[in-house]
């Protein structure tokens, strides 16, 4: 990959498949790993998913045993894909899409509460936003519940985030604009997935 082309990476459940977000080609590229999570054993499978429904995809995640794929990106866009075989991107079909999220600089999104809500991370506003979904894992009619969540507590252009297994810890990755590096922020949540 060219420098700065990789915008994210996710693994399947046992680490034998890796999916890399190529933000120059707006696509997911698949690798096979002969040893789980060991990228020194990775080789290209030749499978690539062009994310034509979004422009400037910045983040992605898999759900429901790899049968649902969420992508978010520039222009306040979010799209879900259904995969007829879990983690097989050759079977991916667009399921739902929205261009109506409240900010145009989303860098990552995560479904929480069994897909009933969508949490998004804004880079420029340095905050999280919480959206309600009328149907689980379907972003078409997402509506904003709260914004300004953890605003200015995830400074220096936040780029990505993840929860631990039970939602009681949140890790945020930010660019350190002063030192040309990255910073990690960790938050303990008394109520799982609740950023209020």
Oligomer: single chain
Low confidence ranges: none
Residue-averaged pLDDT: 90
Order of helices and strands: EEEEEEEEEEEEEEE
Give me the number of helical elements. 0
Strand content: over 45%
Summarize the structure.
Helices cover about 0% and strands about 55% of the residues. With about 200 residues, the protein is mainly beta.
Walkthrough of the structure:
With 196 residues, the protein is mainly β. Helices cover 0% and strands 53% of the residues. It contains no helices and 15 strands. The chain has strands spanning 6-11, 17-22, 27-33, 42-50, 57-63, 68-73, 77-83, 92-98, 106-112, 117-122, 127-132, 143-149, 158-163, 169-176, 181-188. A four-stranded antiparallel sheet has the order 1-2-3-4, with no helix packed on it. A four-stranded antiparallel sheet has the order 5-6-7-8, with no helix packed on it. It is globular and about 40 Å long.
Question: Secondary-structure map with pairings?
Answer:
Layout: E1 6-11, E2 17-22, E3 27-33, E4 42-50, E5 57-63, E6 68-73, E7 77-83, E8 92-98, E9 106-112, E10 117-122, E11 127-132, E12 143-149, E13 158-163, E14 169-176, E15 181-188
Antiparallel strand pairs: 1-2, 2-3, 3-4, 5-6, 6-7, 7-8, 9-10, 10-11, 11-12, 13-14, 14-15
């Amino acid at each position: 990959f060219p420098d700065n082309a990789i915008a994210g990476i996710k693994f399947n459940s046992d680490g034998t498949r890796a999916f890399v977000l190529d933000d120059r080609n707006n696509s997911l590229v698949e690798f096979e790993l002969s040893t789980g999570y060991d990228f020194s054993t990775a080789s290209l499978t030749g499978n690539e998913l062009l994310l034509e429904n979004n422009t400037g995809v910045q983040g992605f995640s898999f759900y429901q045993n790899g049968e649902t794929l969420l992508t978010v990106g520039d222009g306040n866009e979010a799209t879900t894909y259904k995969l007829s075989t879990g983690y097989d991107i050759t079977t991916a079909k667009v399921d739902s899409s929205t261009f109506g999220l409240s900010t145009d600089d989303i860098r990552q999104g995560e479904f929480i509460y069994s897909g009933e809500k969508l949490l998004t991370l804004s880079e420029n506003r340095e905050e999280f936003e919480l959206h309600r979904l009328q149907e689980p894992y379907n972003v078409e009619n997402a509506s904003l519940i709260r914004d300004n969540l953890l605003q200015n507590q995830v400074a220096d252009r936040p780029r990505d985030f993840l929860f631990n297994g039970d939602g009681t810890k949140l890790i945020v990755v930010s660019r350190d604009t002063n030192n040309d590096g990255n910073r990690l922020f960790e938050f303990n949540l008394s109520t799982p997935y609740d950023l209020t």
